[in-house]
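Lab meeting prep.
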Amino acid sequence: MASSVVLASWMVLILGLVIATSTTQVEAARAFFVFGDSLVDNGNNNYLATTARADAPPYGIDTPSRRPTGRFSNGKNIPDFISDALGSEPILPYLSPELKGEKLLVGANFASAGIGILNDTGIQFVNIIRMYKQFKYFEQYQVRLADLVGYDEAQRIVNDALVLITVGGNDFVNNYYLVPFSPRSRQFSLPDYVRYLISEYRNLLMRLHDLGARKVLVTGTGPLGCVPAELAMRSPSGECAPELQRAAGLFNPQLVQMINGLNEEYGANIFIAANTHQQADDFIRNPGKYGFTTSKIACCGQGPYNGLGLCTMLSNLCPNRDEYAFWDAFHPSEKASGIITEKILSGSSNFMSPMNLSTFLALDTTNRT
């Protein structure tokens, strides 16, 4: 009898520890939401009738399945590495039929390749999920989440979630500089266009706040003039295209300034800014420091710097993707995305403002304003 009581006591203790551990994991779990363009799209465009898709080989060549996933990468992209850091499974595209039930608790990716801050960006891709539609889907998601866990718990999940928004590069390469004398370049000088973009981006961030986002990671544009596509079209010498570099140089500091202003307005650190231009520029200028053999030539493509056209089965394909900073004409390789994410997580004030992501997430994460 005594041994039975002891055994029962141990079972109760073990059960209590299991319950406590499970509760801690649930409380520590953080949903993750992603908005933006092809740098963070993980497959939404696979469900759309558009040419802006990464649904054919050799995309995804370094994933476990070696099959394309809709990511514009040979493997993982930045959201995947952030999910790893959060200790959660990769989030699903919002349009995926698998996004239902308990999967909703993990979060969702609303990003769509080709879009920009402005609705007229990427018009050549026709059927893509522009920012206003991404936010509409976020509203739909919250209704679905509330049906699953109740309104109050749904609001808590959204308020405590990490949100990533990556948008802006296409407003230059697929709008202002898309063709000579583009409508936007005739409407605005470059400095005025950048100010207009920042104003519109501010509206997007305020809308995100209205929708419940309280921890938002905002990325700037990368070194636009240094991607293989721009080198192929604008720089036979291999030097970064100066006009696009000027655009990024104007845009990123104003983005940080705008974000700091919004934080002051809300009276809390709702937004942090990642200087992805500085982050990527570091390994573009010093590729060997990061184990790359080249930061000019894309792994997959054709033409000068493998920077022309799409990455397809007929393209040149490098044998070792980890030696290339760029996977295709516009997008970083899996290894480069990992490096950028490391700097987002733990980078100094040269890369992150007003703090890095690890510090941001370590703060009291319930800012309700």
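Slide two material, second protein:
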Amino acid sequence: MDGAAVEEIQLKVFGQQVGGHSLLLKLSDQEVCKPLLSREQFFYESIPQELRNYTPEYYGVVRVRFLPAKNECIAFAHPRAIRASPEAEMTSNSALRLHIACSDGDDTKGDVNPEPRGNPWSALCLHTMNNRLREFQDKSENLQQDYMVLENLTARYHSPCILDLKVGTRQHGDDASEEKKIRHTKMCASSTSLLLGVRFCGAQMYNASKDEYTYRDKYQGRQLDTNGFHGALKDFLYDGSSYRTDILPYLIETLRQLREVIKSLSSYRFFSSSLMIIYDGQKTSSEVGGAPLPRDTTSPQDASMKGLPASWTTRGLWPNRSSRSPWHTRPELLKFRQKVDVRLIDFAHTTHAGFVHDPIRYEGPDEGYITGLTTLISAFENMFS
């Protein structure tokens, strides 16, 4: 790193997080950083074409070296070729240093979607991260971790309403220990996962009348029975004065299309993956086209680099960026996403034939996942009948 031109950028805690174990960091308005797991990285780099419109865009990897003594993080970021070794050596020409504030900053001025303050799940993840940093501080050690850079699915919405659902009738991977298999099997049986194929895992809901957010977490979701689950779906569509029935046709049709895609993927199993549903809690004045696009003049082609140093674009930091841009999907999906977005996330336990030499090969599509999607389609279709 000596003599290398180093640029600095401050990352923030991603304040829209409603689920997951690890703290997400915000790299730019359009990009978030998630702790890297090799299986999940491999899946993102080999997603089948028919599924690409239903997953976040994957941009690459950054390495984060935490310096707890200063209550900040310094990240050395460098581009990697697809499936490059995690131990790949960083060169001075490709390295960039980033300062990351490990605090829930309130500097939201000028943001496309100002992040809500007081998000309890983000605060919990931040608290867990700070505890880890203190442990390393006591040991006079530095913590290094690689992060995947993914599309920020909330970026196009001004007041994002976010629903995190655990889909499927089985929630443990093939590599789980016997203790974990038993624990997750019991959890599926005692919640709605086994019967309905889907479980409520977290939500951020916007009350337009009060201009405030409310939240639910996975612990509340585990307590729901069938009626409670359907009630939670209905609550997700309530804006403080009425139900957002305007998004239902788009949501139902997107779920139907996704179900057909899952049916076509033989041998795929999406164990412990989640489904994210997002819409804008703040209606446009005309209510035409649904949720507004980002309220700035940034073109879609440049949006993903907003907030980053200009050289990040010219150096081509993300060589893995696929030809499929999140702004250039099928026309009908782009239209639907102005109303509501539906994406699969969390692929640490996903498997399919030939996937990283997994020993178990499954036949046919993931029926447990299809059960969950069918439950959701039926629930939304009959919600107000």
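Talking points for slide two:
Confidence is low (pLDDT under 50) at residues 80-95, 103-112, 288-306, 310-328.
DSSP finds eleven helices and 14 strands in the chain.
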